[in-house]
Amino acid sequence: MIESATRTENTDLAHRALARLGEHTENSDSDWALGLLARARAQVSPAERAEPLYREAITRLGRTRLGPELARTRLLYGEWLRRNNRRVDARFELRAAHDLMVTIGMEAFAERARSELLATGERVRKRSAETLEGLTPQELQIARLARDGLSNPTIGARLFLSPRTVEWHLRKVFTKLGIRSRQDLLLALPKSASELIPA
What we know:
The protein is an all-alpha fold. The protein has twelve helices and no strands. It has helices at about 1-5, 10-25, 30-45, 45-60, 65-85, 85-105, 105-120, 135-145, 150-160, 165-175, 180-190, 195. Helix 5 packs parallel to helix 7 (about 105-120), helix 6 (about 85-105) runs antiparallel to helix 7 and helix 8 crosses helix 11. The protein is elongated. It starts with a helix and ends with a helix.
């Protein structure tokens, strides 16, 4: 409601909705609740107060399992940055939002992020959730281990491969996923429920 109200410049409705949200979340110690509250406050705040609130929301929601809320927050922050003529900063947030949304199947929001990226002058290759299916089982295994912070020698030792072979596979993974670094793997390969359940 707050997002819709701010987009239609209905500030009274946005502030009433924010007050209601605040009643339910202000006394919480949950990163989820406080992250949503920070995002909502950012949307109704003047520019000098909005940015730290968006960053707080991203930090808090990044500590939860709520990928959709994190992705939407990065999209809103990226849109805000673009409207404030900060294209380079906007691209980083919009790319992160786009990649996460594609990965978890939020196609309509991913298209919104893609449109925003295009507005910053960035070229955006259309990706779909099926992109992950293009990885071989070994590439997927290596990508997950790299995402979890393991070095190439450690991955190689676990999988009985040389570090150079691991590096070769990772280059292929980056190309297939349209990413540039290990850091991007965190967004391109969020932990699935099956990974979180001990075997």
